[in-house]
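Appendix B. Raw example, untouched.
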Amino acid sequence: MKRLVPVTKLIGTFAFSFWALLLSTAVPLVILVAVELVLLGLCGSLSRNIKAVCSLVVFAVFLGAVQLLGGGSLESAYVTGLRMLAMTIVFIILLTTTRLQDLTAALVKQIRIPYEYAFMFTAALRFVPDFIAESKAVQEAQACRGLSSKGNIIKKMIHYMTVIQPLMLKSLGRSETMALSLELRGFGSSEHSFMSNVRPKGRDYVIMAVMAAVSAGLIYLRVCGLV
């Protein structure tokens, strides 16, 4: 998986998400989620992302419960949760096996997305781990100052506002620093150069063909009412 170029991983990410939308029964979706977990394990990233996967499982159960309480059937609740899992775990695979600068190069050179939009997308992904780390640091700092997170959900929401305010101020400061750095480096010019070689190779074309064949087969089975 790590040897594939970013454009192949992007196509695979959208292919797995498309398959999750096509499948309408629980068993094929369970198989799809299992395949994604196996791929994550083969990439050597399952142990590092086990907490994220567990959080997604909890959220999938929550979505299924909401679907069930909203009048849906048990089967539809299973399908809703499993679809969410299938469409999010594959993005974890993409982000843990692809450097963001390579992803930017693939979006610009292969998919022909304007550089500004590609950079905006990857920059947002780049700051997600920093944002989470800063959130934990602010919570620990507020706890050292005597802030208690105990109580009912309303009290917890009120207490969390003392975390959101400094976190937003730090994020705004980071954004201003980043904007100044980009302006000094000439961001917005019409010429861009990339050091990474993201051109697809033979194995990439083979995998793309396999994904296209699987997609065509699933579309046929869905039209026939078999999935």
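End of appendix B.
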